[in-house]
Amino acid sequence: MTTESTATEPTDVDKAPAPTAARSPRALAWQRRRHSAARFWKQYRTHHAGVFGLAALALFALIALTAPLTVGSDVQSVTEAPGDPMESPSTEFPLGTDQFGRSLLGLVVWGARVSLLVGLLAAVLSVAIGAFIGITAGHFKGWYATVLMRITDWFLVMPTLVLAIALATVMSRSLGTIILAIGVTTWPTTARLVRAQTLAVESRPYIERAKALGGGHWHIMSRHVLPNVMPLVLAQTTLIISSAILAEATLAFLGLGDPTVVSWGGLLQDAREAGAVSSGKWWYLVPPGIAIATVALAFTLCGRAVESVLNPKLGVAR
Fold first, then answer.
1. Per-residue pLDDT for 149 more than 60?
2. How many CB atoms are closer than 10 A to CB 112?
3. Given this model, what pLDDT does residue 5 score?
4. Are 97 and 83 in contact (CB under 8 A)?
5. Rounded to the nearest 5°, which phi and psi values hold at 103?
């Protein structure tokens, strides 16, 4: 006499995957972030100008990162210059030489490191100051917001370049001074934009519910306001980087940069001092000028594309 097995075949319910609710909150959060990033990139690719700008920035970043391997740090040496002063472009020196006989191609490649670094750090500092002032002024309101906004208005009406020159003049000549001078003078626009967005966010019902449940000021600003203004902050950062690079080049051209490092603006300053303009040595002026213009344009194109993706109502052309 045989006994029947009590085991049963798995049903469709048993074969079904675990419900989404069983996953941890952290896993769900990362899944949402991945989906958001994929959706952002899919929409960003439709902006051809933004893709062109991103490709140009990737190329300049690769050039800057590999500069120690491609041209070497000795390209800055004045005593070991391989050529004669201000040679015209040739097979040995594709972009000619500077007033000391150094290869301009190597100097432009090495200068990308300083110009991009100063532009990025100055933009981050500027956006950080503007975002902090904008969020706190929009959240606390009252006399605190009034004082901050009047200070912001004062910075807005003052010429940014004049303030940066004043700071760079009274402080020591270094990259830190240039970054600080640009960062503390270009934040007002970000502050006003972020404050307006903060006021819009805090008027929503879920903010009232969070306050009713006992959420403090820090909780409201960090968990609810900041994530909602981050897209605006990101777009503003990409737009400010181009302005920061131009400002660094301007300060270096005026002789307020760090004389111990090579930057695109510093090359233009050296060309002016060497009389390249009056003597027609165009190869001393054109390469760093084109590099500055190209990077500034690339960041602007990327910023416009990011802004259009995050806020489709702007209708930025593709």
1. yes
2. 23
3. 44
4. yes
5. -70, 125
pTM of the model: 0.78
E runs forming strands in the chain: none
Cα separation, 49 vs 317, whole angstroms:
9
Backbone φ and ψ for 97, nearest 5 degrees, come out as -125, 165
How many other CB atoms sit within 10 Å of the CB of residue 297?
15
Task: Give the Cα separation of 125 and 129 in Å (integer).
Answer: 6
Please check whether residue 95 is in contact with residue 104, taking contact to mean a CB–CB distance below 8 angstroms.
yes
First to last CA, the chain: 79
Closest CA to 126 of 182, 166, 168, 60: 182
> What integer pLDDT is reported at residue 22 of this predicted model?
55
Phi, psi of 100 (to 5 degrees): -105, 0
* Neighbour tally for 16: CB within 10 Å: 8
99 C-beta neighbours (distance < 10 Å), count:
17
Runs of H (alpha helix) within the chain:
12-15, 25-44, 48-65, 67-70, 104-140, 142-157, 160-170, 175-183, 188-202, 205-212, 217-219, 226-253, 264-273, 276-279, 282-310
Calpha distance 97→104 (Å, rounded): 5
- At residue 240, the pLDDT reads 87
Whole-angstrom Cα distance, residue 102 to residue 282?
A: 16
Distance CA 295, CA 297 (A): 5
Q: How far apart are CA 244 and CA 294, in angstroms?
A: 14
Whole-number Cα distances in Å, 83 to 76, 100, 102: 13, 8, 6
Model pLDDT for residues 221-251, shown as the tens digit of each residue = 888 888 888 888 888 888 888 888 888 888 8
- Provide CB contacts within 8 A for 152, sequence distance 6+: 133, 188, 191, 192
